[in-house]
Specification:
two-stranded parallel ribbon; alpha/beta; 3-stranded parallel beta sheet; 5 strands; Rossmann fold; 128 residues
Length: 128
């Protein structure tokens, strides 16, 4: 899934997934739309998202206000960024994902923290 990775792998099940991505500093340059007057996609982000299987869902979260919706959605569409939903007005604090563990022991929540403005995701290996 893309060549911009951390050299590490995440071993995940073969079940369909829900991917949740922050926007600014994760997929696009942090506050680029304010500082530069436009968004700039981070290297490797488009390719990584394109490599996510079609049965998976992609959700984008952003602290941007609803007034930024039009320009943000237009940018994502013009750049071929796949997503199934986008939520605006999210708080700027930590994002906390809580999910259950399957009886088999499979953890149903995974978190990846990236350095700001550097899209370097681990490779995904699907267990057999």
């Amino acid at each position: 899934m893309g060549e911009e990775d951390m050299g590490e792998s995440m071993i995940l099940s073969t079940l369909p997934k829900t991917w949740i991505f922050d926007l600014d500093g994760t997929l696009v340059k942090h506050n680029g739309y304010k500082e530069d007057g436009r968004d700039t996609l981070l290297a490797g982000a488009r390719e990584y998202l394109a490599g996510i299987p079609p049965e998976d869902k992609v959700i984008i979260l952003t602290s941007r206000t609803k007034e930024c919706r039009g320009m943000t959605v237009r940018f994502l569409e013009e750049n071929g960024i796949r997503y199934d939903g986008i939520l605006f007005g999210m708080p700027m604090g930590e994002r906390i994902l809580v999910n259950d563990r399957k009886p088999s022991g499979l953890d149903m929540a995974v978190a990846v923290n990236l350095d700001r403005d550097t899209f370097r995701m681990p490779r995904v290996a699907r267990e057999m």
